[in-house]
Amino acid sequence: MRAAVLLAFAALAAGCGSAEKSSLEEAAEATEADTSRFEMDYVLTVIPMKKSFTMTANGLFDFPKERGVMSVQGDLATLAGLAEDVEFKEFRLLGNVGYARWTIKGKEYWVKDDVDDQIGDPSELLIPLPGTPTQPTDVLARVVRASVENAEVANEEVRGTETTHFRARVDLEKLVEQLPPSERPNDASVRSRPQFVPVDVWVDGENRLRRITMEQKQDDSTFSTRFDLFDYGVDVEVEQPSDNVISQEQFEKLTADSKGPYSLRAGEGEVVTPEEPGQPGNKESE
Fold first, then answer.
1. Helices and strands, number each (H, E), in the chain
2. What are the residues facing 196 on neighbouring strands?
3. In order of start, what are the domains of the chain with their CATH numbers?
4. Sign of the dihedral defined by the CA atoms of residues 189, 190, 195, 200, in that order
5. What is the distance between the terminal CA atoms of the chain, rounded to a whole angstrom?
6. Nearest to 264 by CA among 3, 41, 38, 43
7. What is the pLDDT of residue 48?
8. Which residues pair with 199 in a beta bridge?
9. pTM, two decimal places
10. Is the dihedral of CA 266, 267, 269, 271 positive or negative?
């Protein structure tokens, strides 16, 4: 499981053409990193196949110390192109090293891998999961810098906390331009997405991110993401695995013959079926 280094926080007015700071920009400048719990729901709907793939992740993250733990339920292994005898269970981050817990044919392994500074999907820059290029402090600033418009919607409650709901129209090209050139996704992955993405964020009274949602449409697929942060200040302890630790290369060898019916082509957001002799790029139509 590849991940990326955390980036510097930036605050810059954007979008609405006003010389005055928007409420969203002021929140972006004031927000601070902390520890918290998180929960994410991700749904990929492929219209021609009449099928949806879902994934739910939840866990704890200490953002300043760059350590966290995340459990995952749903179709992650399926979308990775793996069979039912391979199942993803958990991810732990300790600095720049990640440990992914997989069950392979009934046996449990921890796959150790260094994080890197590359992303595949530009929208990853807005989701502060452990091991990604993003902290909660980055999210609001990135939305402000990349939005062509943003506005306050209403005061709303999220998980029992009063928040302010903002809505923005984010330009993915402006979003990736915030990264150093060496850390940007390849041009093909950026061009494969619609340029503008609707993004909603909810910010509490202490200018902390509480929720972000987005929906992207590409060809015949729809991607929906909801990410919540809550229980700020929670204690986060992450234990380094010591048993059955293997490398990414060993994991790939162990799963070489465990291919499932679907896979999500990296950077394209396209669900494909395994290729068969004489049928390169064969796609599932139903």
1. 6, 14
2. 171
3. 23-258 (2.50.20.20)
4. positive
5. 29
6. 43
7. 63
8. 168, 214
9. 0.76
10. negative
